[in-house]
UniProtKB/TrEMBL annotation:
It comes from Pseudohongiella nitratireducens. This is YggT family protein. Coiled coil: none annotated. Keywords: Membrane, Transmembrane, Transmembrane helix. GO terms for cellular component: membrane. The lineage of its organism: Bacteria, Pseudomonadati, Pseudomonadota, Gammaproteobacteria, Pseudomonadales.
Amino acid sequence: MNAFGDIGVLLIDTLGTLYIMAVLLRFLLQVSRADFYNPITQVIVRITDPVVQIFRRLIPGIAGIDFSSLVCALLLECAAIAGMLFISGNSMPAVGAILTWSIAGLISMILNIYFWTLLISIISSFIAPFSGHPTLVLVRQLTEPVMAPFRRILPPMGGLDLSPIFVFLALQILRILLVQPLNAPGFVPGL
């Protein structure tokens, strides 16, 4: 592969990952019932709306959850992987392989989103515990549905919240169970 191929793969990987992450954030924010009047949520909706609207016409929402965002993210992931394989000069594998890699990539990306938002939530709880900054409000709204079941199980520890430790463990267990089995030889790293 030449320099232009490397640049093409880098651009597809970087821009594709950022856009797919925005589409996944849109889906996760909707699932967690986050405030869609938050300025950051509005930016995410504005960025992803042109593509998601195409899929929304074809895929109905179920129980108040718009699955068109998730299908959109999956198809974008498939296109990005196929584009990187094409530009790098590799032969195209079967559609099933690309679909499997895409599902593994989306699961990994969702787990990474929760890992980083949980880390931001923990750090912000020490620095600015009662901040009303739109980013921190959105982070709390995104992580609360994941942390709430653990908070119900764990007894109160005198103001110390140990639920993030168990959420981190659960995220790693999910990564081991769902992503690592798909990380077979020939797996496309990146997306």
